[in-house]
Structure formats: structure tokens, C-alpha cells
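Protocol step 6 of 9: fold each sequence in the batch and record its C-alpha cells directly after the sequence line. For illustration, a two-sequence batch is reproduced in full.

Sequence one:
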Amino acid sequence: MVAALEIVHLHKMFGALKATDDLNLDVVEGELHAVIGPNGAGKTTLISQLSGQAAATSGEIRFFGENIARLSMPQRVRRGIVRSFQITSLCREFSALTNVALAVQARAGHSFRFLRNAQNDSRFTGPAMNALDQVGLAHRADVEAGHLAHGEQRQLELAIALAAEPKLLLLDEPMAGMGADESHRVVDLLRELKRRYTIVLVEHDMDAVFALADRISVLVYGHCIATGTPEEIRRDPAVRNAYLGEDAADAGSP
């Protein structure tokens, strides 16, 4: 198995606060690797460091063997590392198709000044429709993003991420703010996407995590206390004591 991502002795300090504390973990190519932990564990900080939005204080982030810890966010995107955010960030007045076409245009290195091109050029709209189809939104292509339901907006963000042609998807709470039906739809969508993409998933919905993850890493105060399969994590006494609780041994069970 090929390691797509290797995190080696990673640290992130905010003054005296250790947001990431000597973190070591790896993500195998083709797996969905979930990162869980209590609030304040450093999960979003980790995603920000992996994407390049936040600089690491020290340590290495190796992407297919290359240390990318000092690369900018755009440089990492060009290498295939793409993230979504906890809070939706869309051009609400533009259609779903235009939102994704703009991402295709940016990936191709074209200027956003030529918005008309993104809306009408098949070089951009073709791949954009393909990305919308992958997330189940092709039938909503002409709807303004601001008029989409919350769950559909999260699906649209995934389509925008897919338009960047990722080798690694970093998903930060893609089910945040969703109801049960919307969450189930996104779980089904991620189950399909994990067949084609390597994914790092940060998510509070434990049913979703245990249903989707090939492996899970557990963070507490920026440090990884355990990594393993869902079954191994369910049974780990340190994890249950620190985070999941004694009643969580059956979390995510059928």
C-alpha cells in the first residue's frame, strides 16, 4: 500500500498553546481516513495545516514522498490537495453550474475576470457538469446557489472540490448543520466518492464516521492517541475513556 500522506512530528503553536502536538500519522492511497476527537482537539487546525491555510510550526507533511510543509495553499492545490470548509462559501447569486465552472476555470489557470467564459465555455461547463453529476446535483445545475437547500449547498461544495481534480480530499465536517435525511444522503455520496478518491474526513457524526472510515485517528489536545480500523477504535480503552465514552463500543454498529 502506498502512503499518499505522511505526517511526521508535526507541531502547531499559538503562543503557548499546542494546537498540534508531535503528531504522527499516515493516510494510505485510496482510503477514507477519519480524524475524530473532542472539541479543541486540533482537528480543523490539522486540516488547515494539510491544506496550507495554516503554516506548521515544525515537522513534515509528505505528499507522495514530497515534503510540502512549506508550500503555499495554491501550490498544494496544484499538487492535488483540496479541502472543503465547515461553513459554506459559495457565490450565492451564481448558478450551481457557474460556481463549479469557476473552479474548473481557476484549475486551468484562467483569470476570474473572464466570468462569461466560465459560464459559456464548454471547456469549463463540461467538467463542471461532470462534477455536479458525481455529487448528484446535475438536475440542479441552473439553480442559484443561494436557493439550494443546505444539504445541496454542501454537495455543491464537494463538486467544487472535485473540479480541482484532487488526489487528496480534505473534508472538514461536510455534514455540519444537516438533518438526518440530508446526512444519510451525504453518507451515501461519500461512500461513492471513496471509491475514486483518497479522503481525510473530520466529522462529529460518529454514525457516519464508523460507517465510512477505513481507518480512524483519534486526536486529544493535538496529539494522536490511537489509529486503527473502526472496530479497533471502538474497542480501544484509551479512546473510550478519552473521547467516545463507555457507551460508544457499539457506535456505528449495524
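Sequence two, same batch, same settings:
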Amino acid sequence: MGNKGVISSGDTQWMTAGNGIIHQEMPQGDDNGVMEGFQLWANLPKSHKMMDPRYRDIKSSQVPELVTKNGARIKVICGTVEGKQGPVRDVIIDPEYLDITLPALSEFVHATRRGHTVFAYVIGGKGVFCNEKNPFAYDATGENYFDMERDYFIHNGTAVLFDDGDQVTVAAQGEPVRFLLISGKPINEPVAWYGPIVMNTEEELQTAFDEYRNGTFIKHHKP
């Protein structure tokens, strides 16, 4: 099935569904009931779909944070940056998951692997990505069809999918920008998805739901 990473209230949960897992998430917000969280699913290749399931809670104190010479603050959730390795490890698609905050008037440059899918999601402020200051040089899905003006900043709540390359450059100008930078190795396999279950074919989906209904979905039980 897949790996799932959940980041909420500063903590992280990482789960590999493998050959079957049932779970319930009951996140809690702050004293005002407010919570911000992100959930990322990574599909498992067919060769590992039926691996043993795993689950781990990771506290915010276990996530290393480093500050670059130009002031960028990087929380390393998965992957390695300047010798700091994130606590989420042994994921089949070899992902990198970084939470990055740039102060105003600073730049961040990060090497990426050729052939890996790389994207960013802005969660605060706005910035310039890959030095692109021509708003007509990229496609913007979800923009208002009738908008006649578009600036070159990538704003809060916007995702950026990068072309294949060797590095990503992000610049903050008049205000800070915070974004998630995520990459991983594509598996290039068909996806069959229904509800919470992801397989390669509709037949495999039907088998999984049949097993759930007849009580054989869970292959491993905690003693």
C-alpha cells in the first residue's frame, strides 16, 4: 500500500501500511483548538506492497534543525542536510522532506537528485523560486481564468512542481517565506486507489476490501 507521514502541532507520525494496518488519528490543537498539519502519502512499489507494517511517533525535539550562514532555518524530517539526518528513515522511495524558513532578503540553494520528483509547498509568506521573475514563464493551475495580472512571487498555499534538475533556488525578498521542500524517487507504476487503500490494479483493490470485510486484512497482530 503506502507510507504516510503526518506533521501536526510540531510532532510527526510516520506509518507504513504495508500488508495491512488499521489506525485512527485523534490530533489535538493548541489551547484555542487550532492546529495546522500536513499529510503526505508515498506509494510503495509493487515489490514492497506487502511488506510488514510499521508505525512510529516522532516528537518535535527529535527533528534536527540547522541554520545556514544566510539565516535559513531547516527542519530535517527525512533525508540529510549538512550532516543532519532526519528521524524518518528506511522509506523505499528514498524521500527528502524539509521544513524551511527563509528570512527576508535571503536566498536558499539546495542540491536535488536527477530523476527524482521535486516539489515545494509554501506555507507562509511569499518568495521567488528558481530565480523565475517572468509570471508568463510557468503554468499556474487553479488561477482565476479572468485574472489579467499575476506577479512573479509564489504565495502562501501554492505548490511548485520543479522540472528535473540539479538544484532548487528560493529567494525571500521583502518578507520571510516558509515552505516544505519534498522529493522522492518515482516508481512509474499504475495506481489503483479507492478510499484508504492504494494498490496497482482494481483486482488487488477488490481483494483488499474483501479481506477487510472477512477479517483477514490484518496479517500481523501486536502481542
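Proceed to step 7 once all outputs are recorded. Observation for sequence two: The domain at 1-62+201-223 is CATH 2.60.120.10 (Jelly Rolls).
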